[in-house]
Amino acid sequence: MLGDTDCFNFVLMDANGTVLALTATKDDKYAPKKTGVYDVNVQPLLRTWNAQKWRYDAKKKAFYSQQYHPNAVISEGANKNLFLYKYLGLNIQKFSFDQKTGIFRNLNSKRVATVGKTEIKRRTYAADILD
CA–CA separation, 124 vs 8, rounded Å? Predict the structure, then answer.
């Protein structure tokens, strides 16, 4: 299993060969309201863009955004979307990543993403979402 990490990227390749990365958004999902909910989407990979960098806390089993929202973690919504929200220890916020099998999994829903193991050495994780 993945231990505590510094920063890394989650990446995938689209049908056209473009390398994409999981990206935290800066603005509140419901702006101008301030709800503390932020989208996680996919954008072309820019290795210097911190909005695409993540860190893992093995004790909390949570993935934190490196740039805009330092106390927010990836959470899985009821409609299978990913979003950022402050860490509350909720089941929807607990994930694991097994470097040996290449599986990124929400510990509550059991939904997984497989990750290309060849990318691990570069601290980049390539994800294909499975349901």
Answer: 5
pLDDT digits (tens, 9 = 90+) for 65-91: 988 898 999 998 888 788 999 999 999
Number of domains in the chain: 1
Domain containing 113 equals 9-130
| Residue 87, domain CATH | 2.80.10.50
Any idea of the CA torsion for 40, 44, 47, 51, to the nearest 10 degrees? -20
Question: How many whole angstroms separate alpha carbon 1 and alpha carbon 100?
Answer: 8
pTM of the model: 0.79
Within-domain flag for 83: yes
| pLDDT tens digits, 87-108 | 999 999 999 877 666 677 888 8
Question: For a pLDDT cut of 70, what percent of the chain falls above it?
Answer: 77
Nearest to 106 by CA among 126, 71, 82, 70: 82
* CA-atom Rg of the chain in angstroms: 14
